[in-house]
Amino acid sequence: MENVFVIVPAKLLDSVGEFRFLTIGQSKSQKLLVISHTERENEIRLISARLASKQERKNYESGV
Questions:
Q1: CB neighbours of 33 closer than 8 A, spacing ≥ 6?
Q2: Which among 22, 24, 26 is positioned nearest to 2, based on CA atoms?
Q3: How many CB atoms lie within 10 A of CB 60?
Q4: What residues contact residue 49 under an 8 Å CB cut-off, 6+ apart?
Q5: CA atoms within 13 A on the CB side of 33
Q6: What is the pTM for the complete model shown?
């Protein structure tokens, strides 16, 4: 599998007033990760990072 990152379109969270992004890609150790982040004042703020679920992995591998 080629090391490709996928960025899911942002969602605006009204309670916080900021956009949240999901990025899916492989780590150097070949783990497929899902990372949530936002941008504040031109800086990227990491919200969470976790291993991809079976369904997320399937979607990633099929190019969805």
A1: 24, 25, 26, 27, 49, 50, 51, 52
A2: 26
A3: 19
A4: 33, 34, 35, 36
A5: 14
A6: 0.73
How many CB atoms within 10 Å of residue 34? 19
**pLDDT tens string 6-58:** 667 667 666 677 888 888 888 889 999 999 888 888 898 999 999 999 999 99
**Strand ranges in 1-64 using DSSP code E only, listed in sequence order:** 6-13, 18-26, 32-40, 43-51
Residues near 28 by Cβ (< 8 Å), separated by ≥ 6? Answer: none
Write out the two tokens for 5: 């990152």
> Who contacts 44 (Cβ-Cβ below 8 Å, separation ≥6)?
37, 38
